[in-house]
Write a structure and sequence with these properties.
With 163 residues, the protein is mainly alpha-helical. It has helices at residues 3-14, 24-34, 43-54, 58-70, 75-91, 95-105, 114-127, 131-143, 150-161. It is elongated and about 55 Å long.
Length: 163
């Protein structure tokens, strides 16, 4: 992959909303781009998974996300894969697997995607009837971005899950 390829992928994603609801044309564009990657690249199944996911086919995205991870996807895309895989699992009724995946992600060093991990984990928890835990995660994530009341919101978040 090079910068020009990355820019073309970013341009395709910037235009994703212009394609029909079924997304077949968009997925063809992504397929053509990933065909340019070296054989065995973990980025190929990742990009294909994203395209399926974004066009309403979480069921088809899940195995591709798993393939990307198995092939050694790393860095920023690996973190995105964990988040998106968990979301897709939730969408197909397997939220518990999403919780397991994202709880492990919270053990990793924090980065700019940590709040997305928490938000997606909150959705998975809500799907399992564990809304208070989910709300606590969202409040905890939000507190860090507030100009005031960070300590109070953090305390409220903890209180939601205390017995």
């Amino acid at each position: 992959m090079d910068i020009a390829w990355e820019k073309r992928v970013a341009a395709a994603w910037a235009d994703v909303e212009q394609y029909d609801d079924r997304g077949a044309e968009f997925r063809q564009i992504i397929d053509a781009l990933v065909e340019e990657l070296p054989e065995g690249s973990p980025v190929a199944p990742f990009e294909r998974a994203c395209a399926f996911d974004s066009t309403g086919h979480s069921d088809r995205a899940v195995p591709l996300y798993r393939e990307a991870l198995e092939k050694g996807l790393d860095g920023y895309r690996r973190r995105r894969t964990a988040i998106q895989l968990a979301s897709s699992l939730r969408n197909i009724g397997r939220a518990e697997e999403g919780v397991t995946l994202l709880e492990a992600e919270l053990e990793r060093p924090e980065d700019e995607l940590t709040d997305a991990v928490r938000a997606t984990l909150a959705l998975c928890l809500a799907s399992l009837g564990r809304e208070r835990e989910g709300l606590a995660l969202v409040l905890e994530a939000l507190a860090a971005h507030l100009p005031r009341y960070q300590r109070s919101m953090g305390n409220y978040a903890r209180a939601l899950t205390e017995r």
